[in-house]
Design brief:
Largest sheet of chain A: 5 strands, antiparallel
Oligomer: heterodimer
CATH class of the largest domain in chain B: Alpha Beta
Structural class of chain B: alpha+beta
Order of helices and strands of chain A: EHEHEEEHHHHHHEEEEEEEHHH
Structural class of chain A: alpha+beta
CATH topology of the largest domain in chain B: Aldehyde Oxidoreductase, domain 4
CATH architecture of the largest domain in chain B: 2-Layer Sandwich
Bound molecules: flavin-adenine dinucleotide, iron/sulfur cluster
Number of helices of chain A: 11
Helix content of chain A: 25-40%
Largest sheet of chain B: 7 strands, mixed
Distance between the termini of chain A: 43 Å
Radius of gyration of chain B: 28 Å
Radius of gyration of chain A: 20 Å
Strand content of chain A: 15-25%
Number of strands of chain A: 12
Number of helices of chain B: 20
Number of strands of chain B: 29
Strand content of chain B: 15-25%
Largest interface: A-B, 34 and 39 residues
């Protein structure tokens, strides 16, 4: 890793003051589970690393009850993934979030990794992570995955020059839950819907999100909606220490047996989390039966344009959506596919 | 006098915990990487980023100016070619790891990239091309064919014939402890702390390297603890030699251990094996013919892929007609190294998977076809040596099949292929069988056994077992203690075992499952010799005849007077002396025939060849293609078991590796960059505890056969058993491992397309 200067400011303003307006020279540090890897591989070579761990209350998880409306949950960007996964109240109201957080990596990753780092982490494309491969996203001429080893890459590739999959499993969940992020830059704070947080990069001056290089994620706010049902389902080759091949996050309101306000978001299939409205439509206003869930899965997968080696993921989208819906609709019930 | 194991065994064969468990689990055990002698420098190797390139120029001037830089050592200089991404070019040495890396990155190399192949299919499409080193004419070498019987007639005779593809990809060594060593010179004396499976061999190779320059060179290799080798660590390797060179140049100790990426790309790999197979048989289970046309890649430097002499595998002698053809495809990838039973897991998949498919075609339980084709006993051999494998193998397999059937509840759980349940989660059960050698190592060129051990008893009653042999994590240290304690009537914890230092005597590399069958008998003989020396030295003071002295637990007893003395008191009679015994052992001694009686001189001390039967149960999610191996039964023999606990542990470890071969491991090469895309533990997948089955190990103890090695056999048939279980669940053969969601769904889709 290249030598850098380490800072641990006590305030967000202090952190922002240290950040460069362009990508590359400075990096924020949450738990370091991603940034350290990138620096060791010389994929990131910052001159300054600015830790966020010195900022007070940055890791707090607050549940603010609102009269008659359910609660509002505010999670600090410094909250550890393990703290999110183990939070008893969150487990009750947002099982989609706590299961997704609880399945990330292994205990070491979850105990170090933070919410902010999870949302801002870089993609896992193996060409991108190899110092010796100069691909499009690193300022090179071509995307090596297009005609290379792409079994884990995007299957919704339309219009994308870089076919990474968005790595965050919390992203799709937070979008499904209508969460917003509060971010702060040199000009002050702004609130951003999670649905607008992620970005499909295609060059070295772009990231997998829309933040400016000198902006910091402060917190994520999730409104609890009455009667909310939500779930996240991951298809994984390994149960331990692995990435999902495909993920589906769903949320809806259980309205007298019918699902309304249905949101279905896919993870690990496109350069950003993918909101699939056609799939949500299949469920809207209906009881979530096996047939309805299956139809939603089919609708979700319909527009996939897989690459040479990842056609198998299309079927996984169908299954993940179906299973996420059935899980959300039947909380606490053992499902027929569970081993 | 003939050597034999004691008839009544107090410790041997019992469950005895590993004696160095506490050291290892508390972090007190010091591995090679933990050695930090004063003034230590760090070294790294700059490697080719290209799969094949010409080195035009190397410029180290900028590196020499970096902070902490000490020296370089060129491995492949300007004008040479490098043949895979990872091939060594030049090593750098600096005062810290960080400075070393900086210096390495400051070296400028000009390359001319050259044509390369990193995928078998591409090389096979260009059979004339040559992108590799050495005199070979092209990357592709079509091997000799071999035939037995009349294959065409055999297929004619068959009631059903199956033709299909099977295979396993290249997989990488993933020892937890990386390759490498710490080298330190004092005058002509070189000490290395190496992660090696061959303590003596490593010292010898290093000595040979420096002999011309330093005629008096004296090399000591130390390997007290080791984090696995599995066949990938038999010498100093290029990195070890380089570390010693740099230590010589800088006059300071130098550490060079590979990092994980290097470990995976250059630490050695297991060749792939892909075969087109045709197999035919009859309803009663008789296999009438088998034909295989296979290829595999051992990487750039060539070498074997499958074990061609043993293909078809266990049924080689039973199948009357077979034909085999094999093509070696050299690619611009890292070097193949022996990996736990080299060639055998591939052979097993290329044999036992088609056998199950044939059973399905014939509509019979695969157990029937296995029973029917088990290799026969050789009755002549059985008469001359009742402990020999050839005379017994049928009985052993039958016994093991029966046990595996019982423990796995095969009769209850086996169902027709594809009948694994109603929902998306399908149950499957599958079986495979294997064999392995595992004898003692023979005599060396000087006519002496390759292995010996020394047992020393001092006047305080302290017992030391000393040997240069190594404990790779196999529990050899514990085995040595058990054997000495058994003979001397002591507790295992009473014995001090000093191993892993090359001056401690003669020992061979730990390969081929030969260590225990070589070292345990050597220790037995050494302990007996030390005991007899003790008796001789104390008899007078004891007031007994030395022939009358015997060992009882914790005591030395005079048979004549019935007088017994506590061990320590007896040893105190040594006065200023000590008792000592040296014992050697080799396969030559195991096979020695009494010229008059025409029988073995030392029967039942060590032996060769074992069998094993494994049964896997899986649950396959047919909607996602995810396979979970849930239960596993491993039945295994290895003659006389010294430590049942660590022996079973070896078997469980073999199964764990095998499940990984079956479900997860895959070296993925990129055709355009020529680089491995998964040189890590993230996308080079390895199962965690949740991904592994409940493993039931059943050892079939055959003490009359003597000691036989256990390290390799239990990993051989695992992948084939899992593959067969997946077939049983789906009714569809997933042709290639790993049985990943991708490969499972693709196989199901193909079947669906066919109808
Ligand atoms: C084997 C393995 C499996 C994994 N599986 C999953 C998985 O299934 N799902 C998943 O989602 N993740 C997975 N991860 C990734 C893991 O979740 C991330 O590494 C982790 O969340 C990153 O958090 P961190 O705090 O350590 O980030 P860091 O490494 O500290 O930072 C990551 C990036 O985010 C930026 N950053 C950090 N905090 C902020 C902030 N507050 N504002 C703005 N920018 C910020 C940093 O500058 C950096 O660029 C896996 C990782 C591994 C190694
Ligand atoms: S997918 Fe993106 S990151 Fe990967 S090789 Fe292509 S351009 Fe680079």
């Amino acid at each position: 890793m290249k030598e850098f200067t380490y800072y641990q400011p006590k305030s967000v303003d202090g952190a922002i003051g240290l950040l460069d307006a362009k990508w590359g020279k400075t990096e924020l540090l949450g738990g370091g589970t991603d940034l350290l890897d990138l620096t060791k591989e010389y994929v990131a070579q910052p001159d300054k690393v600015i830790s966020l761990t010195g900022i007070a209350n940055f890791a707090d998880i607050q549940v603010a009850p609102q009269t008659g409306k359910g609660s509002v949950v505010l999670i600090g960007a410094g909250a550890r993934l393990a703290a999110i996964a183990d939070h008893a109240h969150l487990q009750k109201i947002f099982p989609a979030l706590t299961t997704a957080a609880g399945m990330i990596g292994g205990p070491q990753i979850r105990n170090m990794g933070t919410l902010g780092g999870n949302l801002c982490q870089r993609n896992r494309c193996w060409y991108f992570r190899d110092e010796h491969v100069h691909c499009l996203l690193k300022g090179g001429q071509k995307c090596f995955a297009l005609d290379g080893e792409n079994q884990y890459h995007a299957i919704f590739t339309q219009g994308h020059k870089c076919v990474i999959v968005s790595p965050s499993t919390l992203g799709p969940v937070l979008i499904a839950l209508d969460a917003t992020a509060e971010v702060q830059g040199p000009k002050g704070k702004r609130t951003l819907e999670l649905a607008k947080f992620f970005f499909a990069p295609s060059g070295e001056n772009e990231r997998e999100h829309v933040l400016a290089p000198n902006e910091v994620v402060l917190s994520v706010k999730i409104p609890e909606k009455e009667g909310t049902r939500n779930a996240s389902y991951e298809v994984r080759q390994k149960q331990s220490y692995d990435w999902p091949l495909v993920q589906a996050a769903v949320a809806f309101k259980a309205d007298g047996g019918k699902a309304t306000g249905v949101k279905i978001v896919l993870g690990h299939v496109a350069p950003t989390p993918l909101v699939v409205e056609a799939a949500a439509k299949e469920v809207e206003g209906k009881e979530v039966t096996d047939a309805v869930a299956t139809a939603a899965g089919k609708a979700a997968a319909k527009d996939a344009k897989p690459l040479s080696q990842n056609g198998y993921k299309v079927k996984l989208v169908e299954v993940a959506v179906k299973r996420a819906l059935l899980t959300a609709a039947n909380p606490g019930k053992r499902q027929y596919w569970e081993v | 006098m003939a050597t034999s194991w004691p008839k009544d065994r107090r410790l041997i064969g019992k469950d005895i915990p590993r004696t160095d468990g506490p050291e290892k689990s508390t972090g007190r055990a010091r591995y090679s990487i933990d050695m930090n002698p004063k003034g230590l420098l760090h070294a790294m190797i700059l490697r080719s980023p290209y799969a094949h390139a010409h080195i035009d120029a190397i410029d180290v001037s900028a590196a020499e100016k970096t902070t902490g830089f000490k020296a370089v050592h060129e491995i492949n200089g300007a004008g040479k070619e490098v043949y895979f991404a990872g091939d060594e070019i030049i090593a750098v040495c600096a005062d810290t790891e960080e400075h070393c890396r900086d210096a390495m990155r400051a070296i400028k190399i000009k390359f001319t990239p050259l044509e390369f192949f990193v995928k078998e299919a591409d090389a096979l499409k260009n059979p004339q091309s040559k992108t590799i080193s050495g005199p070979a004419k092209s990357n592709v070498a079509i091997g000799a064919e071999a035939t037995k019987g009349d294959v065409a007639a055999g297929f004619k005779d068959a009631e059903k014939i199956v033709e299909a593809d099977y295979g396993m990809p290249v997989i990488c060594h993933q020892c937890l402890e990386p390759h490498g060593l710490v080298a330190s010179w004092e005058g002509d004396r070189l000490t290395v702390w190496a992660s090696t499976q061959a303590v003596v061999g490593t010292a010898q190779q290093l000595a040979a390297t420096f002999k011309a320059r330093i005629p008096q060179v004296d090399v000591k290799c130390i390997t007290h603890y080791m984090g696995g080798g599995y066949g990938s660590k038999f010498g100093p390797d290029i990195q070890g030699i380089v570390a010693a060179e740099l230590a010589l140049k800088t006059k300071a100790p130098v550490k060079l251990m590979l990092n994980r990426e290097e470990e995976i790309t250059v630490g050695g790999n297991r060749p792939s094996a892909y075969g087109k197979i045709k197999i035919g048989g009859k309803k009663d289970g008789t296999i009438t013919a088998y034909e295989v046309d296979c290829h595999g890649s051992p990487g750039e430097r060539g070498g074997a892929t499958v074990n061609l002499g043993l293909l078809p595998y266990v049924y080689l002698d039973t199948i009357p007609n077979w034909k085999r053809k094999h093509t070696v495809v050299r690619l611009n990838t890292g070097i193949a190294r022996a990996m736990r039973a080299p060639g055998h897991p591939q052979n097993c998949v290329l044999t036992d998977c088609p056998v199950d498919d044939l059973a399905a075609a014939l509509g019979i339980d695969p157990l029937i076809i296995r029973r029917k084709n088990l290799p026969p006993n050789d009755d002549k051999v059985a008469q001359s040596d009742p402990t020999a494998w050839l005379g017994q193998r049928n009985n052993i397999y039958v016994r093991e099949l029966d046990l595996a059937v019982k423990l796995s509840e095969w009769e209850k759980k086996w169902h027709q292929p594809g009948q694994g349940g109603k929902g998306p989660i399908k149950h499957g059960i599958g079986m495979a069988i294997h064999t392995w050698g595992g004898s003692a190592v023979g005599n060396l060129g000087d006519g002496q056994p390759a292995n010996d051990a020394t047992v020393i008893i001092d006047r305080g009653g302290q017992v030391i077992v000393q040997s240069s042999t190594q404990d790779l994590g196999t529990a050899q240290r514990t085995v040595s203690a058990i054997v000495a304690a058994e003979i001397l009537g002591l507790k295992v914890s009473d014995i001090v075992v000093r191993i892993g230092e090359s001056p401690f005597g003669r020992s061979s590399g730990s390969g081929g499952s030969t260590t225990c069958p070589s070292q345990a008998p050597a220790t037995l003989r050494a302990a007996i010799a030390a005991r007899d020396d003790l008796f001789a030295k104390i008899a007078a003071k004891f007031g007994a005849k030395k022939e009358d002295l015997v060992i009882e637990e914790g005591k030395v007893v005079d048979k004549a007077s019935k007088k017994g003395l506590d061990w320590k008191k007896a040893c105190a009679m040594l006065g200023m002396d000590e008792a000592k015994g040296v014992g050697a052992w080799s396969s030559n001694m195991a096979n020695e025939i009494d010229p008059d009686k025409k029988i073995l001189v030392n029967p039942g001390v060590s032996n060769v060849q074992v069998g094993g039967v494994q049964v896997a149960e899986v649950l396959v999610d047919v909607e996602t293609g995810v396979v979970r191996c849930t239960n596993f039964v491993a039945v295994q023999d290895c003659g006389l078991i010294i430590d049942k606990l660590t022996c079973e542990s070896q078997v469980a470890g073999g199964v764990i590796m095998g499940v990984n071969y079956a479900l997860f491991e895959d070296r993925i090469m990129d055709r355009h960059t020529g680089r491995q895309v998964n040189p890590d533990m993230e996308f080079y997948k390895l199962g965690g505890i949740q991904d592994l089955p409940r493993i039931k190990v059943a050892m079939v103890d055959m003490p009359e056969r003597g000691v036989i090695g256990i390290g390799e056999p239990p990993t051989v048939s695992t992948a084939a058993a899992v593959g067969n279980a997946v077939f049983n669940a789906l009714g569809v053969r997933v042709p290639y491992a790993p049985y990943s969601p991708e490969n499972v769904l693709n196989a199901l889709a193909k079947k669906g397309a066919k109808g």
